[in-house]
Design goal:
single chain; alpha+beta; 3-stranded antiparallel sheet; elongated; Homing Intron 3 (I-Ppo) Encoded Endonuclease, Chain A; 12 strands; 3 helices
Length: about 160
């Protein structure tokens, strides 16, 4: 097959893959058919993330796309120091401009659903806190929910500075 479009190539799980930058399609060889013709790999959504099967293993689509653009990056490294973050928080937007390599902690800082405050029954106040290095930092108790939220958002500017690894 001749490729008439702009592609990137990589090998994942022993399989050669091609990525059509314009269409976003990922092509792989079908090893079950004689002559090993190329075909578009299927992608499906599971638990808010797009996934695909390469050989006998499942991969998150955002990790596969990141690998195409960063060939020396180890897609098999599932450690806490090797997360791929969606910068805008939308897990179905997998353009390379929206992806970056971070630690698990830094990835958590980018969560849009994290509040950083909760109601404290005992004190009958709103308690603000922020997590850093697996420790929770107490930011104060507040009468108003909005004040607790603002305390968290201000602390986030100080403690949750994301520098890609």
């Amino acid at each position: 097959m001749t490729w008439a479009f702009c592609t990137l190539t990589t090998v994942i799980n022993g399989r050669e893959l091609k990525y059509d930058i314009e269409s976003g399609e990922i092509w792989g060889q079908n090893y079950n058919l004689r002559g090993r013709p190329w075909e578009v790999k299927s992608v499906w959504k599971n638990d808010d993330y797009l996934k695909m099967k390469i050989g006998s293993k499942m991969y998150f689509l955002h990790r596969v796309i990141y690998k195409f653009y960063n060939p020396k990056w180890n897609i098999e490294d599932g450690s806490k120091d090797n997360f791929i973050d969606h910068i805008n928080g939308h897990t179905d937007e997998n353009q390379i401009e929206n992806l970056r390599n971070l630690t698990h902690q830094q990835n958590g800082w980018n969560r849009t659903k994290a509040k950083g405050y909760s109601w404290c029954k005992d004190m009958k106040k709103w308690r603000a806190y922020i997590n850093l290095n697996d420790k929770q930092i107490h930011l104060g108790l507040f009468d108003l929910e909005a004040d607790a939220r603002n305390a968290y958002l201000e602390a986030k500017k100080i403690y949750h500075i994301i520098i890609p690894i």
